[in-house]
């Protein structure tokens, strides 16, 4: 089904719109307008939250800026330590004597490739202020609800004095202000079809994009706050052109479009980075997660009513403080007050006779009337208490405990303080995990760029180690590299020194106790060395001692396994193995006897069955023969009877002839 808008063009997809530059421009401008409209309310709330953070309250000056205080407290709690790349083989297999040469070579190549990427990442992180970039994104997240960082690939060609020119390759990341990031529709980050960055480019930057079109794009933006005076200065000083850089995942192209140039895009680039996720930004940092939409949630929106109430209470307190001053009215006929008003602190001035007379008779109070500040002070104290309660409510809603802010009650117990710190850090720990995931995703994008784009010469110079052809082939292997190499980071939040020392002490105490308990069993060969080490490694890893400790534990486990293989089985193990074999042989013998008995019974049954079948066949044959014999006997008897009858007939005939002859001779 085609999409038809008021742009005057009808087409199925963006690819079909490419041959028509004007329709292509209108389609993308409509996409951007719809995306901005979808987040219109969020952008409005984000603008208000940022103004409040900067102290730009609408209509008046912010008196109690708790928004600034909370953000300045939470940002260091989420990121206070630079991440260290941790690149290693995805599966920590170690070459052994049993492995074939091809497997051992493959493992060695994977290990070298992981070291190359790790060193290259460490080098690139040192070339710019990576921490400041992450802190800017976290501040955007805490202020507006979303933080974005973009990874860039920047090759620089240096003119060669001798031979071919050299290319310096660099990959860095930059913070994307929340106002300048636009995303396409989608309920999940994986479903977002495109993202866009808003730029304000000079004429030189436009010409760098495209020499022909760059000189024709109108400069429609002014970087000067005073718009009237900006028109009097040259365009090279304040004038800029708004340009949207679009990363379209569907076509895997980067498109540059300026709203002031309606004839088509300024530039369309093919995807040269070949990133797995295409986008040059990882999944943004979100202050709060929502499973149904990617529209951020402004944290300030949840405490806005409380902040307004806090501001109103503070305004009333300041008004009362201005009222609470020592002021009053006196009788003008009483002299001596001029000298008293000019007296210094602790100075005594001589009083007049009439003034002393009033003092002695107790009539001075009737001649002086003071402002009633006691009632104002009581109201101010009540307002101060109310403000503290509102602050505590804000801390509960925002998850900012007193311990995290550095405020504590000296009368509280250590358990109460630890409980408050634990309650306040529950949501903070989730955000810390998101920040660590964010840094890891950035390093993964940088690692993909380094592996795909950096040549061998640059890799060898920045890592200080040779890069064989097999390693370079693996780095350029794309999906094969992802199968064999994993990119991670260590923690981006470093705990306080006291907590780290306490954890280290507990680890050493636990290690000493474990060794003391296990050593006798290892010495007497009751427990093998590799089993003791395998039981110790999970205990040590629970303390999260860092990458070096993890590598040491891995080497310890490997050494224990190799030592166990070299030593062979202990006498106890040999005895147990022999007993196991003996028991196994007995079981196998019994099984064979049972099988033989079963086979004998089966054979006997088959023989009996054969005998019975043979007997039955013999009986049947005998019966058949008897029947045949009886039949033959009956046939023979019949024949004999017939022959006897014939013989009798012949005898009778002979007798008749003889009688007849006799009768004839006698005549």
Query: What is the CA–CA distance across the termini?
Result: 144 Å
Work out the number of β strands.
15
Can you tell me the overall shape? Answer: elongated
The portion of residues assigned to helices is 55-70%
Count of DSSP-assigned helices: 25
- What structural class should be given to the helix and strand makeup? alpha+beta
Overall pLDDT metric: 79
The description of the largest β-sheet is: 6 strands, antiparallel
Please indicate the percent range of residues in DSSP E strands (runs of 2 or more): 5-15%
**Computed Rg:** 50 Å
List the uncertain runs: 1-17
In short:
The protein has helices at 14-17, 21-38, 40-53, 66-78, 101-125, 130-144, 203-209, 211-214, 227-230, 235-238, 299-302, 304-323, 337-342, 353-361, 364-367, 373-398, 402-405, 414-453, 456-463, 469-475, 479-484, 497-523, 529-541, 547-567, 571-666, and strands at residues 3-4, 10-11, 85-89, 146-158, 166-176, 181-183, 194-201, 221-222, 239-248, 253-257, 267-270, 285-286, 328-330, 368-370, 485-489. With 667 residues, the chain is of the alpha+beta class. Mean pLDDT is 79; it is low at 1-17.
Describe the structure.
The chain is an alpha+beta fold. Among the domains are: 3-87 and 117-300 and 427-449, no CATH class; 302-344 and 366-424, no CATH class; 497-568. It is 60% helix and 12% strand. It is built from 25 helices and 15 strands. The protein has helices at 14-17, 21-38, 40-53, 66-78, 101-125, 130-144, 203-209, 211-214, 227-230, 235-238, 299-302, 304-323, 337-342, 353-361, 364-367, 373-398, 402-405, 414-453, 456-463, 469-475, 479-484, 497-523, 529-541, 547-567, 571-666; strands at 3-4, 10-11, 85-89, 146-158, 166-176, 181-183, 194-201, 221-222, 239-248, 253-257, 267-270, 285-286, 328-330, 368-370, 485-489. The strands form 5 sheets. Strands 6, 7, 8, 9, 10 and 11 form a 6-stranded antiparallel beta sheet that branches. It has a 3-stranded antiparallel beta sheet with strand order 5-4-12. A two-stranded antiparallel ribbon has the order 1-2. A hairpin with a 7-residue loop joins strand 4 and strand 5. Helix 22 packs antiparallel against helix 23 (529-541). Residues 1-17 have low confidence and may be disordered.
């Amino acid at each position: 089904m085609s999409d038809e808008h008021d742009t005057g063009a009808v087409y199925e997809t963006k690819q079909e719109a490419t041959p028509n530059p004007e329709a292509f421009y209108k389609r993308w401008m409509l996409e951007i307008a719809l995306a901005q409209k979808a987040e219109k309310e969020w952008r409005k709330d984000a603008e208000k939250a940022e103004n409040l953070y900067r102290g730009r309250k609408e209509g008046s000056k912010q008196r109690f800026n708790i928004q600034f205080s909370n953000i300045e407290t939470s940002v260091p709690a989420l990121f206070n330590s630079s991440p260290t790349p941790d690149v290693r083989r995805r599966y920590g297999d170690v070459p052994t004597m049993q492995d074939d040469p091809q497997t051992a070579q493959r493992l060695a190549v994977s290990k070298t490739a992981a070291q190359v990427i790790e060193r290259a990442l460490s080098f690139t992180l040192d070339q710019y202020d990576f921490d400041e970039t992450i802190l800017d994104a976290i501040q955007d997240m805490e202020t507006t609800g979303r933080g974005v960082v973009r990874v860039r690939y920047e090759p620089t060609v240096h003119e060669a004095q001798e031979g071919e020119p050299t290319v310096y390759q660099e990959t860095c990341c930059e913070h994307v202000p929340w106002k300048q990031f636009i995303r396409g529709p989608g309920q999940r980050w994986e479903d977002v079809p495109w993202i866009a960055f808003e730029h304000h480019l000079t004429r030189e930057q436009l010409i760098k994009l495209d020499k022909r079109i760059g000189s024709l794009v109108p400069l429609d933006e002014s970087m000067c706050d005073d718009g009237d005076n900006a028109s009097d200065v040259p365009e090279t000083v304040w004038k800029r052109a708004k340009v949207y850089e679009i990363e379209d995942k569907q076509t895997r192209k980067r498109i540059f479009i300026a709203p002031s140039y309606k004839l088509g895009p300024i530039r369309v680039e093919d995807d040269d980075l070949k990133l797995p996720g295409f986008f040059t930004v990882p999944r943004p940092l979100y202050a709060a997660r929502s499973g149904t939409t990617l529209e951020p949630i402004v944290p300030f929106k949840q405490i806005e009513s409380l902040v307004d109430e806090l501001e109103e209470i503070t305004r009333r307190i300041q008004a009362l403080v201005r009222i609470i001053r020592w002021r009053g009215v006196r009788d003008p006929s009483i002299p001596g007050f001029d000298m008293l008003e000019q007296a210094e602190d602790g100075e005594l001035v001589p009083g007049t006779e009439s003034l002393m007379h009033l003092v002695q008779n107790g009539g001075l109070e009737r001649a002086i009337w003071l402002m009633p500040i006691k009632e104002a002070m009581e109201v101010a104290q009540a307002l101060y208490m109310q403000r503290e309660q509102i602050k505590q409510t804000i801390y509960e809603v925002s998850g900012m405990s007193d311990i995290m802010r550095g405020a504590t009650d000296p009368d509280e117990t250590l358990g109460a303080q630890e409980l408050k710190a634990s309650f306040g850090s529950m949501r903070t720990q989730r955000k810390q995990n998101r920040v660590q995931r964010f840094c890891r995703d950035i390093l993964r994008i940088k690692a993909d760029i380094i592996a795909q784009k950096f040549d061998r010469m640059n890799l060898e110079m920045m890592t200080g180690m040779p890069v064989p052809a097999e390693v370079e082939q693996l780095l350029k292997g794309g999906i094969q590299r992802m199968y064999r190499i994993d990119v991670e980071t260590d923690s981006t939040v470093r705990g306080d020194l006291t907590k780290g020392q306490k954890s280290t002490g507990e680890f050493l105490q636990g290690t000493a106790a474990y060794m003391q308990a296990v050593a006798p069993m290892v010495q007497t060969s009751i427990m093998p060395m590799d089993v003791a080490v395998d039981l110790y490694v999970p205990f040590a890893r629970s303390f999260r001692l860092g990458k070096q400790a993890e590598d040491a534990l891995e080497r310890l486990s490997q050494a224990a396994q190799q030592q166990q293989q070299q030593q062979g089985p202990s006498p106890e193990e040999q005895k147990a193995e022999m007993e196991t074999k003996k028991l196994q042989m007995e079981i196998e013998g019994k099984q064979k006897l049972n099988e033989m008995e079963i086979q004998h019974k089966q054979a006997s049954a088959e023989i009996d069955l054969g005998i019975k079948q043979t007997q039955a066949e013999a009986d049947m044959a005998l019966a058949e023969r008897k029947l045949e014999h009886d039949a033959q006997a009956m046939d023979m008897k019949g024949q004999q009877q017939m022959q006897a009858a014939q013989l009798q007939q012949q005898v009778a005939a002979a007798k008749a002839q003889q009688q007849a002859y006799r009768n004839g001779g006698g005549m």
